[in-house]
Amino acid sequence: MIDLQGKSPKLLVIGDLMIDHYLWGSCERISPEAPVQVVNVKSESAVLGGAGNVINNLNALGAQVDVISVVGGCEISDELKKLLNNINVSSKYLITQKDRITSKKSRIIAAQQQVVRYDRESTDEISSESQKLILTSFKSIINNYDGVLLSDYGKGVLTFELTQAIITLANKNDKKVLIDPKGLDYSKYKGAYLLTPNKKEASEATQINIKDDASLTQAITQLKDECDLDVSLITLSEDGVAIYDNDLRTRPTVAREVFDVTGAGDTVLASLGFALAYGYEIDDAVEFSNLAAGVVVGKIGSATASLNEIIEYESSLNKSTSDEHIKTLSEIAALSEELKARSKKIIFTNGCFDILHAGHVRYLETAKSYGDVLILGLNSDRSVKALKGEGRPINTQMDRAYILAALEAVDYVVVFDKDTPYELIEAIKPHVLVKGGDYEGKEVIGQDIADELKLVQFVDGKSTTKTIEKIQKS
């Protein structure tokens, strides 16, 4: 996979902001007043929707995000600003048009099924004054960003004139504009870097029934030519993503199991923008967005994918490289918090693992059986020498780390240079601490931090020291 770890591109989102509101309850009877279900509401939740879901996805990936949009002079707007503030996204570029109602879609859910949805919103085009204010803000900040994402939900923010003005100005400043389009007339998106329509949307926009390779080629080239795009894309659901610039190719999807495609288009737009912002070629960016979408459709409801989830998912598909599983202290501390938030049980063990043998592998496989994610603290070359003496280690710390990270049982490796792994254990705060059976009755470093200590017996006759002695005698 392309390496996006530790990078934080700055992206600007412009489009229709909304709130997705959920009322969760149960239904046990029919109303005596009318033949309708009576739902006993037990809880409710609200999340950013529309362009806000693109923002959520960028935020989960670690991007710096700003947003330009128009909101109404209503209580829903105040609620929306609080949701933005909760993810540290500023609302300073939001323009208030008092006669509008900010979109809020409320869904009543009973027994995991949607009973009804009711919307409160304005869908007419924003005023000419609001359009001028958006363009003024855009002109003043355009050069602060690595890319511009337009999320069009057809709620009136991205008018024809405003969209064309944004694209023209972005192109003059060498900023790529990526757009999730809406409607039948794509002429307002002319000059964008790329669009992300799905097969149904592309069929409707081109009036070509996409049913085979020939019709796909016709539709995707027509979109590129008519909209003057740098790259033409059509997402094909389970068949992947079709790409056309100088030639046509399809990048296959990587979803293992699909639970819900809600918001997948937002994830594709966000992940493409995130990858392209650092200059990656379109094929690599599409591969990355396919992985992100694969994570998201495996969740229920509008969801996001973090970089760590994408790496973990890619690893499960046997596509990741070992070095993607080697982390620094700060990276593993942040990752541990994320894993715990996802209810993962973390196991920690440590050691030198100088010359890997069957005893090591069985020890690590047993350790992994105690939870979900095994993090291995690896002694640095300096600390191995201090423990084992001159001539050790045989293999350098990065060679040892790379080999260990390739093992199926090991999820992450962290090299530590201290005399003990206490600082590392303190940063991870594992649920389970694992050590060898020779620690029976002894104090184990870090057992005051972990919830549980497990001791694993070594395999008789297997040790690095004995291996080295055998080599020296031969």
Concise account of the structure shown:
The chain has 474 residues and is α/β, with parallel strands linked by helices. Helix content is 36%, strand content 24%.
What's the structural blueprint in terms of helices and strands?
Layout: E1 10-15, E2 17-30, E3 37-50, H1 51-61, E4 64-72, H2 75-86, E5 94-97, E6 103-110, E7 113-120, H3 128-141, E8 147-151, H4 160-172, E9 177-180, E10 194-195, H5 199-206, H6 213-227, E11 232-235, E12 241-244, E13 248-251, H7 264-276, H8 282-296, H9 307-316, E14 326-327, H10 329-341, E15 346-351, H11 358-368, E16 373-379, H12 381-388, H13 397-405, E17 412-416, H14 422-428, E18 432-436, E19 452-456, H15 464-473
Parallel strand pairs: 1-4, 1-8, 2-6, 4-5, 8-9, 9-10, 14-17, 15-16, 15-18, 16-17, 18-19
Antiparallel strand pairs: 2-3, 6-7, 11-12, 12-13
Helix pairs in contact: 1-7, 3-4, 5-6, 7-8, 8-9
